[in-house]
Amino acid sequence: MNSALSKSETKEPEKQYELRPKVMADGTPAGDLLEISMGPQHPSTHGVFRMDVALDGERVVKLKPVFGYLHRNHEKIGEQTTYLGSMPYTDRLDYFCSLTNNWAYALTVEKLAGLQAPERAEYIRVITAELTRLQNHVSLVGFLLQDMGAMGTPLMYAFRERETILDLFESLTGARMMCNYMRFGGCRCDLPPGWLDQTKQIVSEFPRFLDEYEALLSENEILMSRTQGVGCLPRDLAVNASVTGPMIRASGVNYDVRKVDKYGIYDRFSFRVPLGEHGDVYDRYMIRILEMRESLKILQQALHDIPEGPIVDPKAKLRGFRPKVGEAYGRIEAPKGELGFYVISDGSPNPYRYRVRPPSFINLTILEDMCLGHHVADVVIILGSVDIVMGEVDR
Amino acid sequence: MSVPMLGQGILKGMAETARNFVGSYVKDERLVTVQYPEERRPQAEAARNFPFLVYDGDDWQKGLRCVACLICEKECPPQCIYIVKDTVRKPDATGKLQFQPKTFDIDTSVCMSCQICVEVCPFDAIKMDVEYELSTCNRFGGLLVRKEQLAKSNDYYRKMHPVEAAGVDARLGADKARAEAKAKAAASSKPAAGSSPAPALATAERVNS
User: Fold this and answer.
1) Residues of B in contact with A170 (CB under 8 A)
2) B18 to chain A, closest Cα gap in Å
């Protein structure tokens, strides 16, 4: 199982980065390296992402990620608009998980301005964030299998389930993906009537889908041979590269901001943090499946306990919002990892500095280390298992 | 690895696919897609696409609730609203003299339907539409929506967002009643007292909740 890893370790690492033709032992040329450019329009790259790959035969000897195609000045725009004005832009960071992005930004500005969301708003935030995690992981798993060549079926099954959750988002926030729902000190509007019952029903039906999905794939021999031992991310490297989220947990590091920081009201729920062992693509796939099951546990508790009450802090102001001078860093466990916002206020209506710590950008930094020595076809699934969204990587 | 027989996992997966495939012939709920142009799914109450301007009464020019206060123009994150305030006050639907926008344009190619203009509007004048078939063959002019296209009646708003519109109507009705009571009280104590725009500003504080 770990043969691929041990093989790549026995190679001399500095030679893997060399870009000159290999020479056989007797001095004759052994064929040239092939440089190919994968992306930005390659269907496997999850958006406009390019990799300059150097291949020795089928094996990767060098990989350079190239990004910036989707750069749209998010952080600079954040300095030009009001605090509230940045909220809809955060939807567009990781456009699969707009509600967790909203939450991270709202949490940061609440820290800055000393606001506290009421009880009910905190529950709504947990419910929407866990639903977001469900729909992110479910589509990620679908995309990962699409990358592996399981065309259509797993992705369509995944999207069928994702759509039911997006319908919930639409009836709550008005939009399927660009939710723009959280506000500083609470949420924009209360839950529509019947929404909780609908959510309860979807949450109770979701495990059936997960079972179906696992029957479809988890024991599939093709999937196992394609993913096990591929793209191993060693524990130390993961920690040193500050990889977060399901990626680092698949490598066996117990780090979940929900447990570490206990932001919001996460200390009230009992859930476990699934950990992987090998840190390969299969572990990353399984971690997501297991995390979905844990999210369902949180959802059931939150849906059971949610109280009545106001949804906005009475101190919160929509217009003329000027937090006092200071700085704040807020972070949450977004589906892709630790999502942080860093905001400096100089007392004006706009932030002085607005910075995003996007999880998938930082998780992408170790792509080359995971891909070296593997086939070019494995690069596609290793990239898929990182779970990147270019909106967040390029900002 | 504890795989009992090679290929068993694949067969299990195939059985699952077959079950779904056959099931789609038996159970209607397994068909999750709709045949779009012929069949349409109902939209959620909260659904939102670009904003529109609400007017009261029958005459859109007269009944526009918008008083060109420029708050939405200032708060709009992508700056897609362009307003020119009129120079003279004109009577609105209730007969009160108000400023009106001379120009009110929304560039829908820039608008991101974030609803912030709706939230900050103290006069309930701008609301979110649910129209979604908006393709045009004119890339620039076709996506720039003018005042006359933006103005839609309160009845349309009630039809699109029944619950939300009922709340707004109740609030505006209460404000109006309060203003009338105040005017009456003022008239009885001091006969020549003019009406003040205070009730409209009071709504601004509550538009958030």
Assistant:
1) 44, 46-47
2) 11
Query: What backbone torsions phi and psi does residue A79 show, to the nearest 5 degrees?
Result: -80, -20
Which residues are A355's β-sheet partners? A342
A181-214 burial, b at 16+ Cβ within 10 Å, e below that, comes to bbbbbbbbbbbbeebeebbeebbeebeebbebbb
Instruction: Answer for the pair A124, A187: CB distance below 8 angstroms, yes or no.
Output: yes
Tokens (6 digits) for A105: 């930004």
Q: How confident is the model at residue B208 (pLDDT cuts 50, 70, 90)?
A: very low
Q: Which residue of B has its CA nearest to A171?
A: B44
Determine contact, residues B102/B66, Cβ cutoff 8 Å. no
Of the residues B33, B72, B207, B208, the best mutation for testing chain A's interface (the one with the most A CB atoms within 10 Å of its CB) is B208
pLDDT for A314 beyond 90: no
Average pLDDT over residues B146-161: 85
Whole-angstrom Cα distance, residue A28 to residue A140? 46
ipTM over 0.90: no
Q: Is A175 an interface residue toward B (CB < 8 Å)?
A: yes
The identity of residue A337, as a single letter, is G
Distances (CA, A) of B34 to A171, B17, B44: 19, 21, 16
Token pair 């709550």 in the structure block, residue: A172
Q: Angle at which helices B8-26 and A195-217 pack, to 10 degrees?
A: 140
